[in-house]
Amino acid sequence: MRKANPSKDQETQPSQQHSPAIWLYPKKEIEVEVTLKFHGAGFMTSSIPSYNDTWRIHVDPKPPFNRYSSTYVDDPWIPYLDYDGFRDGEFQRVAGWCIHQKDLIDWQRSHLKQIGFTEAEIDDVNYSYGRMLLERQYQEEFFAIYPQEATIVDTSVSLTVVPQPDSIYRLWLYFVPMAAKAVDLKVPHVKKVERHGFSVIELAYLTDREIPSGGPQQTAQPGRRTMLGHRAGVECRK
Asked: What is the pTM of this model?
């Protein structure tokens, strides 16, 4: 079923700030299936558009920006796919950056640009994920930011796209509020964003300090984290 062009009451809607965000860049209008598989104790809690075991979406790549909508549902067009959930896995905390909370917005704009994200993608996370972290008003002065690249991300949540893209780039940024500046972090060497033909780009901001209200009280083991996106309701101090 081919998705009709959006009418005035179906204009592109802003995302509701889930994390990660997934952008798809085909060369022409296309029907796509995107499937996520959570490993370990991980599971999805919410998504936009509705996931239903697989995203079946129509992608319209015409300027000024890509638009996505469910193929068989008359729902609003959105600027990117996103989801929330527990992500279980072995996440590195050796290499990263440590910044003042107050510098987060400027930091993410300059660093994400260096990594190869577009201005539109940076705006998406700048006005959602970055401000989401600041609105939590952590008492700690600093953020340690640990990049998790595709080799780690794939073991937590695997991603399958049909038809198969020419390139897939995945990056999760793991934020840990800190009272003092970390001085022993190794300098991270993050791969630049790859864009070849039909490309898929994913970016997430994560923290291990929240669990949903009434949810499972899990104790993190050294080197292991069960993480939830920003929609969690209770802060858990470790």
From this structure: 0.80
